[in-house]
Amino acid sequence: MTKLTKNKKLALAKIEADKLYSVEEAAKLVKEITTTKFDASIDMDVRLGVDPRKANQMVRGIVTLPHGTGKVIRVLVLCTPEKVEEAKAAGADYVGLEEYVEKIKGGWTDVDVIITMPSVMAKVGQLGRILGPRGLMPNPKSGTVTMDIGKAVNEVKAGKIDFKVDRYGIVHTAIGKASFSAEKIQENAQEFFNTILKLKPSSAKGTYVKSVYLSSTMSPGIHVEPKSLEA
Questions:
Q1: How high is the pLDDT of residue 162?
Q2: What is 75-157's CATH topology?
Q3: How far apart are CA 52 and CA 59, in angstroms?
Q4: How many angstroms from the chain centroid is the CA of residue 222?
């Protein structure tokens, strides 16, 4: 059995095991129980009553959090020469095409998001075996294959995230940092949750949202009352 650390015991002591916390309470409490020396991520887990094995019950979407994620997002733009300045002006960290295609073929994937254009997807498609498993493959549905390169870069830098339900029916993502105020954590959580509500598949039967938990890196989870998250 894993031995509980002193900080873990103190954190657990602050959480009432059978209580459903409002999002306002949970946002304050998650900051109290976070004891890491680094700026921990605030995570949200939403368990859904869907069967991800069925295509018509897949829940996937994008959301731009009002206060961003607090994470520095490294963006690579793979584009033709006429889009290079647009990408750089929007704040892309790396911009180019052939040289980065070759770097990726060599194993380089030191970025968080890759944005590209429809006209160069044939080249990018060759990188699927490398980018796919790392979740870096550009996709029109997530807005990372577009002609509006500047807008796409701005949205990603501002806190736009792509999410989808996993095979266990859980949607998990980081919605901020422990250094955020409780109000910012609450507002980001509500934005994320209400985006998931809008994506409810018409084929999903029974209870759509089964549970919601808020936690930080290495902290216990706090059970959140779903209705408190609704707009």
A1: 85
A2: Rossmann fold (3.40.50)
A3: 8
A4: 19
128 CB burial (10 A radius; 0-12, 13-18, 19+): exposed
Right CATH for 18-69+160-229 from 3.10.20.310, 3.40.50.2000, 2.60.120.680, 3.30.190.20 = 3.30.190.20
- CA-to-CA dists, residue 71 to 5, 61, 74, 118, 230, angstroms: 27, 19, 9, 28, 25
How is residue 197 written in tokens? 């509500």
Total-model pTM: 0.79
**HEC profile for 154-204?**
HHHHHCEEEEECCCCCEEEEEEEECCCCHHHHHHHHHHHHHHHHHCCCCCC
Computed over its alpha carbons, how large is the radius of gyration of the chain? 20
* Residue carrying structure tokens 């031995």: 3
**pLDDT digits 0-9 by tens, 15-67:** 888 899 999 999 999 999 998 889 999 999 999 999 999 999 999 998 989 99
What residue ranges do the domains of the chain occupy?
Answer: 18-69+160-229, 75-157
